[in-house]
Amino acid sequence: MRMQCPNFFSILAFSLSVTVFALGISGYVCAADTTVIKIFEKTDIENDRILLGKIAKITGKDRGLIQRLESIVIGRSPLPGKSRLIDEDYIKIRLRQGDIDLSQITMEVPKKIEVFRTFIEIPKDNIERIVSDFVYDKTRKRKRVTVNNVRVDNEVILPRGEVTYEVIPPRNTDVLGTIPLQVCFRVNGRPEKKIWVTANIEITTEVVVTKRPLGRFSLITGDDIHLQKRDLADLPANVISDCEEVLGKRAKRKIDANAILRTDLVELPPLIKRGDVVLIVAESDGLRITALGKAKGKGHRGERIRVVNFDSNKGIYARVLDSNTVKVDF
């Protein structure tokens, strides 16, 4: 009886099939264990550092490796509102610097990787309102405060977060007139941006103003003056703001119409004028002596002027009591 031997080529084909199948299973297992990094094409970043975990989806069974990969710093984030392009080679360099074995990972990288920094925009009108609120709060004890011509060059771009601000006026300067103000912005407590803003601050007050020209030494009456509102920044320190303060006084010199009255422009008329006849009084220990005399100069109440005694024709100094009387001090 003739026995048939297995075909050599059939046996060889079967062996190769088994081997390929086994290699396929082995390759499948290895691929399943590989950590995969899938980089996003576009990513929005809030922080100032780009972490791999923020721009990629990382999957795998090795949780320790995944955490290491997620915390790797790829680079600095762009400025708020700006974007940055990153390529695959740059990411691989960062991975090697982080002691990552690239043979343990698989990377899926798009042709272009763009990282955009999110931002908060503070518009110019918001900044103007910040400055105005600061001025009104600082000058709340003063009436008739007006803030205008607040000049802001540009809006402010900040990273996302909790925004706070502080307005800083110039040192040793009253908040009045056109002044520069510094506005400091913080995000999550960290200083982020400083800008300069100018503002014109008006504090109006009522002042006494002449209705018509006043001649030298002319007495001031209610028909000569009235109150007007003026910007305090344009006024001298000795301006008069109460009509009662000038009524009955006289102009020291010629004053034009619509002039703001100051304390150095008006005076009380002297009670005694040069050439007036006055009563000279001298008193001491119950003794009172009187005599007539002639004033040799003008004088207000309490001022000492020179007078000449008619009886002795001698000149003495006496203090003005009223429009008719002077008193000799012993």
How would you sum up this structure, described in words?
The chain is an alpha+beta fold. The protein is built from five helices and 22 strands. The strands form seven sheets. Strands 10, 12, 13, 14 and 15 form a five-stranded antiparallel sheet that branches. Strands 18-19-20-21-22 form a five-stranded mixed beta barrel. The protein is rod-shaped.
Summary, kept brief:
With 330 residues, the chain is α+β, with helices and mostly antiparallel strands. It has 5 helices and 22 strands.
The first-to-last residue Cα distance is 174 Å
What share of residues is helical?
10-25%
Give the SSE string: HEEEHEHEEHEEEHEEEEEEEEEEEEE
Shape: rod-shaped
Quaternary structure classification: single chain
State mean pLDDT (0 to 100 scale): 87
Number of helices: 5
Q: How many β-strands, per DSSP?
A: 22
How would you classify the helix and strand content by structural class? alpha+beta
Q: How big a fraction of the residues is strand?
A: 35-45%
Main beta sheet, described? 5 strands, antiparallel
Weakly predicted, low-confidence segments: 1-6, 11-31
Taking all Cα atoms into account, the compactness measure Rg is: 47 Å
Ordered list of secondary-structure elements with their pairings:
Elements: H1 8-33, E1 35-39, E2 42-45, E3 49-51, H2 52-55, E4 56-59, H3 63-70, E5 73-76, E6 83-86, H4 88-97, E7 105-108, E8 113-117, E9 120-122, H5 124-138, E10 145-151, E11 156-158, E12 163-168, E13 177-187, E14 190-210, E15 225-231, E16 250-251, E17 266-267, E18 277-284, E19 287-295, E20 304-309, E21 315-320, E22 325-328
Parallel strand pairs: 1-7, 2-8, 18-22
Antiparallel strand pairs: 1-4, 3-5, 6-8, 9-11, 10-14, 12-13, 13-14, 14-15, 16-17, 18-19, 19-20, 20-21, 21-22
